[in-house]
């Protein structure tokens, strides 16, 4: 007999406890609910308690279908979703590639049970995917199994307490948000020519909390932005998300890239980029406008966002000491770091005259005029993607990592040269 029956109350007496008091009018209905709760099977009770702490925002069917429909790849040999939920992403795979074997995991046992009924031929198992011990107990993920050529993810977004999750990227230990931790945990299960396609909160590409994880991923993988959605309507909430594709860095991933059709530049520009080795550095200006003045002689001109207009730079009379470190010569591309996104303020600077950069300017410095013109043409043909890289709910801004990832999404890989670094990086065309 459940213990709740032995203490079923009289409606005449209040039930008192050191933690609460149930009034005379409430005690019967409250303890009836407690009785039902106590009689629940333990797995269901545990599942409800644990999963209840996490937001369950399942992938909208139209978004899942659009993501899979736009993938320009052959039928995956094996596909998986490690946060499967209701199975929208799996269903999109099944609709396009009916014969692809599917594997699904989810923290919720009730979700797993529904997945098993919905996808009769799929292997669905319960797994706390951020727990390595739990992953090791999933038969479909064992080391002797074949890896996956396509992994689709809509991981949990919740991070209200600002907690970071430890993960390992190769031999490098990092800490990051829950959503990006899910992506990192999936990478060891990716085949050599496979890719992870993930729906993530846009902050994963810009936040300081995820900076070290992004850098670690980019050492061994390409990250490309497939979609940038300002407001995706999940159940009971609207979220700004990006859809990214991650693939291993190798010669072969050029030909097998599943997102060439979406992300590759136009044919002529692509061909020229592939045939040229382009050296560049991406950095941010550091000079505050408050320290500038009009100097009749000496010094070097200062470039601020107000000097960027209609694709060209019109230098003002503001000058600063020639000793400043935040300066550049042409060939370079200069663009605003903050403010309302405007493609007319993305400017090609080809002069050999050295100019200083305000702290509101981002620069991409090239080793040749031809290289600068090629990438400028690439940005011009993908104006919307550049403008969507600016983030922020009030004043929009573009981060160094955001610029880097945006170029990467266009088929160009690069590294950032920060203020405390003296390195330059190579831009390598990924598409042919």
From TrEMBL:
Q: Which GO terms describe its biological process?
A: methylation
**Gene3D superfamilies given for it?**
Vaccinia Virus protein VP39
Chain ranges of the Methyltransferase small domain: 67-161
Which GO terms of the molecular function aspect are on file? N-methyltransferase activity; nucleic acid binding; S-adenosylmethionine-dependent methyltransferase activity
Signal peptide, first to last residue: none
Q: Which PROSITE patterns match?
A: N6_MTASE
Q: Which domain of life is it from?
A: Bacteria
Q: Supply the alphabetized keyword list.
A: Methyltransferase, S-adenosyl-L-methionine, Transferase
SUPFAM superfamilies attached to this UniProt entry: S-adenosyl-L-methionine-dependent methyltransferases
Q: What is this protein called?
A: Class I SAM-dependent methyltransferase
Source species, please? Bradyrhizobium uaiense
């Amino acid at each position: 007999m459940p213990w709740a029956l032995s203490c079923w109350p009289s409606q005449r007496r209040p039930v008192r406890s050191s933690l609460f008091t149930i009034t005379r009018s409430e005690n019967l209905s409250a303890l009836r609910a407690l009785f039902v709760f106590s009689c629940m099977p333990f797995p269901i009770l545990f599942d409800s308690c644990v999963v209840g702490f996490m937001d369950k925002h399942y992938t909208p069917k139209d978004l899942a279908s659009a993501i899979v429909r736009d993938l320009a790849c052959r039928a995956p040999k094996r596909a998986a979703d490690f946060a499967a939920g209701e199975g929208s992403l799996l269903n999109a795979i099944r609709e396009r590639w009916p014969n692809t074997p599917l594997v699904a995991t989810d923290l919720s046992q009730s979700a797993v049970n529904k997945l098993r009924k919905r996808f009769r031929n799929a292997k669905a198992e319960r797994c706390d995917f951020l727990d390595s011990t739990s992953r090791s107990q999933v038969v479909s993920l064992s080391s002797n199994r074949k890896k996956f050529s396509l992994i689709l993810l809509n991981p949990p977004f919740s991070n209200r307490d600002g907690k970071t999750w430890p993960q390992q990227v190769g031999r490098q230990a990092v800490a990051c948000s829950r959503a990006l931790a899910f992506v990192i945990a999936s990478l060891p299960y990716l085949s050599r020519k496979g890719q992870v396609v993930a729906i993530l909160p846009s902050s994963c590409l810009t936040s300081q909390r995820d900076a070290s994880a992004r850098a670690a991923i980019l050492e061994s993988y390409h990250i490309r932005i497939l979609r940038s959605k300002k407001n995706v309507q999940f159940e009971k909430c609207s979220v700004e998300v990006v859809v990214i594709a991650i693939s291993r860095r190798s010669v072969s991933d050029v030909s097998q890239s599943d997102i060439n059709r979406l992300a590759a530049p136009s044919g002529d520009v692509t061909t020229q980029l592939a045939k040229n080795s382009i050296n560049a550095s991406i950095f941010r200006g550091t000079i505050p406008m408050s320290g500038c003045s009009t100097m009749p002689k000496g010094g070097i001109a200062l470039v601020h966002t107000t000097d960027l207009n209609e694709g060209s730079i019109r230098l003002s009379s503001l000058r600063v000491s020639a000793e400043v470190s935040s300066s550049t010569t042409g060939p370079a591309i200069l663009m605003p770091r903050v403010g309302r996104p405007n493609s007319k303020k993305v400017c090609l600077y080809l002069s050999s005259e050295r100019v200083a950069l305000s702290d509101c300017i981002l620069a991409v410095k090239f080793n040749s005029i031809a290289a600068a013109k090629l990438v400028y043409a690439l940005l011009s043909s993908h104006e919307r993607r550049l403008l969507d890289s600016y983030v922020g709910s009030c004043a929009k801004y573009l981060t160094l990592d955001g610029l880097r990832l945006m170029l990467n999404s266009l088929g160009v890989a690069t590294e950032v040269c920060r203020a405390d670094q003296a390195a330059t990086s190579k831009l390598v065309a990924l598409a042919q």
